[in-house]
Structure formats: C-alpha cells, structure tokens
Amino acid sequence: MAKLFLVRHGQSLWNLENRFTGWHDIDITELGIEEAKRAGMILKDEKIDIAFTSALIRAQHTLTVILSEIGKPDIPVIIDKALNERSYGSLEGLNKAETAQKYGDEQVHIWRRSYDVIPPGGESLKDTYNRVIPYFENKVAPLLKKGENILIVTHGNSLRSLIMYLEHLSPEEILEREIATGVPITYIFDESFHASRKVG
After folding, report:
1. Are the CB atoms for 184 and 66 separated by under 8 Å?
2. Which DSSP letter does residue 94 get?
3. Does domain 3-13+29-87+124-198 have CATH number 3.40.50.1240?
4. Phi then psi for 112, rounded to 5 degrees?
5. Which positions make up the binding site for substrate?
6. What are the structural domain ranges in the chain?
7. Which residue in the list 35, 61, 69, 85 is annotated as catalytic?
8. Are the C-beta atoms of 11 and 35 separated by less than 8 Å?
9. 16, burial (CB in 10 Å: exposed 0-12, middle 13-18, buried 19+)
10. Is residue 109 pLDDT above 90, yes or no?
C-alpha cells in the first residue's frame, strides 16, 4: 500500500505579517524552519521515494529542511508551478486586516473563503483545484499506483484542493478545513486506489 504525505510549508514572513501571499515568493521564518524540522521528525521513520513541491521558495525551503531532518537529502524532487498557492492577484502583499477595513469584512471573507469567487486579478479555489488535480492525476497518482511513497510540500489552498479530491468533500466542507503549517497529513492507498486518512 502506497502512502502520500502532505505538508503545508512552514510559517512564511507574510504569514507572520498577516498579508495575502499567493504567488509572491516569500521565504519562511525561523519559526517556519522549526516547523519544518518538526515535520521531518514526524516523517523520520517513513519510507519516501520521491518529493514534489511548488515553484515558490517557502515550499522548497520547507522541503529541504524536512529532507535534511530525515537524513535523505538526495530523494528526487520535482518542482512545478502547478502546485503553487492560489493567486490572490492585486490583493497580494496587502495586510488582511487593512484590506477588510477598506473593502469590508464580508467581502474579504468571500474572497478568502468561497469556492468559486475570484479576488481581483487572482484565482478562486475552484481555479486552483482545476490546476492542481490534473497535475496530481497525471504526475503523482501513477507513482502511487506503482507503490511509491510520495511527499508533497506545498501551500494551504493547493492542499485544500488535494484534500477535497482525496476525501470527496463538497466545496462547503473543504472551506471549513484548516491546514496547519508544518504538520504532515498522511493518506494510505489500498489496491483499488482508495485513499484513507491516517489519524494520529
């Protein structure tokens, strides 16, 4: 049975500053590095054959720390922008609280927590899903079906897309799912390629 490990990157500088980050290439903080190390400690005894990450430095840096922590820095790594965070368009770089003061709490909540509403110049979660899932089906799923264990280190909304797909969740259900930084989520696939989430 193959395993899929999902990890959201460690805290980034703009996470700390409560800014919309999206496709801006912002690195992780010292706390983010510590979160990545803890993720590595959790995954230390797992067999990992190949890793995937986005084209953004916060995910790549987190992955590098994890692989160093587990003592396997030479695992093959595939980098692809298909796994990038959702684009927030013209909101990127703006403080979330200040943006709520400008546009109203309700509007900002809709931009952040709706499935198919697009922020100005950006992507909806639905757009992100339609980018991430074909990539997963074409590039990752065939490896899992061969029995390889996969680690994906990426972003909150990229992971929401994957979790929605793997757990067959509705748009309403996935929008309620919080994904902590630097905490591995494990899925185990049976011979029929059905995924079950490992808890604990």
Report:
1. no
2. S
3. yes
4. -80, -35
5. 8-15, 21-22, 58, 85-88, 96, 112-113, 156-157
6. 3-13+29-87+124-198
7. 85
8. yes
9. middle
10. no
Could you tell me the pTM of the whole model? 0.95
Per-residue pLDDT band at 200 (split at 50, 70, 90): low
Query: Is 92 known to be catalytic?
Result: no
Q: State how far the Cα of 6 lies from the Cα of 39, in Å rounded to an integer.
A: 10
CA distance 101 to 104: 5
Give residue-wise pLDDT tens across range 48-100: 999 999 999 999 999 999 999 999 989 999 999 999 999 999 999 999 999 99
The answer to whether 94 and 103 are in contact (CB under 8 A) is no
The CA distance from 52 to 60, in Å, is: 9
Please report where in the chains the tokens 């500088």 appear, as a residue: 13
Type of residue at 54: S
Q: Which two tokens stand for residue 50?
A: 């190949």
85 a catalytic residue? yes
- Mean pLDDT for the chain? 95
Dig out the tokens for 35 from the structure.
């979160």
Residue 162: is it exposed, middle or buried by C-beta count within 10 angstroms (0-12/13-18/19+)?
A: buried
The residue behind tokens 């979790």 is: 163
Which residue type is seen at 23?
A: W
